[in-house]
Amino acid sequence: MAAAASALDRLTARLLRADPPRAKSLCVTLLGDALQPHGGAIWLGDLIALLLPLGINERLLRTSVFRLVAEGWLQAERHGRRSLYRLSAQGARNTAHAAPRIYGAGDAPWDGQWTLVVVPRSGNNGLAERTELRKALEWEGYGVVAPGVFAHPRARQDTASSILETLRIRDKALVLTARDLPGAGALPLQALAPQCWDLAGLAEQYRHFLRQFAPMENALDGADTRDGIPPPAAFAARMVLLHRWRRLVLHDPGLPASMLPADWPGHAARTLCRRLYWMLFQASERHLADIAGADPSHFGPLAPEARRRFGGPDGLKPSESARGNT
């Protein structure tokens, strides 16, 4: 067991050295993945203790939480000389909005319907407004099929409407649904996928993820399930795993399988992420409870929906789903 734990520590350290995470971004990962299911509140000292082993020192973390408060992600509360931070209503909405893309179990059926956002050439649309709209839509996975026309095969219409509302341009763009006309003999909309989205670049990012994290699965397969993984090592590995996965998958437009190559590496990457996540989960939760759970008034029981992430641990081999047991 000691050898397997040491291998996990070395792999985690190597991943951190190869691509050191930004303090604010890693803080968002921890808040959404680890703290939100327990109520979303944590003392600053506990947050420092959780992130210090991941290379985030106290000065960087203080700066990060200050910025997250300023950006509306967090709320700060003073309790004497201590500071408590909790997810704001906006932070909770942001976390909930991203969760399906991060933790989805896999490809869902597609009904062939597209959502289009069309920005007419005429009107009072300024360059700054169009630029901000394009950034927001591309972040949600929309592709540009023509000048001023953005399309996505899965995106919810209310997401596009919310973006227009936030940018205060609801009266300057159209939100439509569309389907290919049966029997028209015209070019199907999905044929534009390679030019609307950088699928080749995204595929290489997924292959890189597989190369990075396949050794972690090998290390965990060498763990003795009777003793389990040391909780601090499991928590650090879980945070690095989810941080890399979140950064990758939130840039994936989430196209239906019918629009992707048959050997799409994103499927294998999600399967690997799921296995690793549940191998690490129970032990990492013990470490989280040891630190943040010392004050149960601000750290609640794990929310049931957290156990449904990636489709839940059901279906994994017993040695995988019980990896963190003691």
TrEMBL record:
<protein>
    <submittedName>
        <fullName>Phenylacetic acid degradation operon negative regulatory protein PaaX</fullName>
    </submittedName>
</protein>
<feature type="region of interest" description="Disordered">
    <location>
        <begin position="302"/>
        <end position="326"/>
    </location>
</feature>
<dbReference type="Pfam" id="PF08223">
    <property type="entry name" value="PaaX_C"/>
</dbReference>
<feature type="domain" description="Transcriptional repressor PaaX-like central Cas2-like">
    <location>
        <begin position="108"/>
        <end position="180"/>
    </location>
</feature>
<dbReference type="InterPro" id="IPR012906">
    <property type="entry name" value="PaaX-like_N"/>
</dbReference>
<dbReference type="GO" id="GO:0006351">
    <property type="term" value="P:DNA-templated transcription"/>
</dbReference>
<dbReference type="InterPro" id="IPR013225">
    <property type="entry name" value="PaaX_C"/>
</dbReference>
<feature type="domain" description="Transcriptional repressor PaaX-like N-terminal">
    <location>
        <begin position="22"/>
        <end position="91"/>
    </location>
</feature>
<dbReference type="Pfam" id="PF20803">
    <property type="entry name" value="PaaX_M"/>
</dbReference>
<dbReference type="InterPro" id="IPR011965">
    <property type="entry name" value="PaaX_trns_reg"/>
</dbReference>
<dbReference type="InterPro" id="IPR048846">
    <property type="entry name" value="PaaX-like_central"/>
</dbReference>
<dbReference type="Pfam" id="PF07848">
    <property type="entry name" value="PaaX"/>
</dbReference>
<dbReference type="InterPro" id="IPR036388">
    <property type="entry name" value="WH-like_DNA-bd_sf"/>
</dbReference>
<feature type="domain" description="Transcriptional repressor PaaX-like C-terminal">
    <location>
        <begin position="197"/>
        <end position="289"/>
    </location>
</feature>
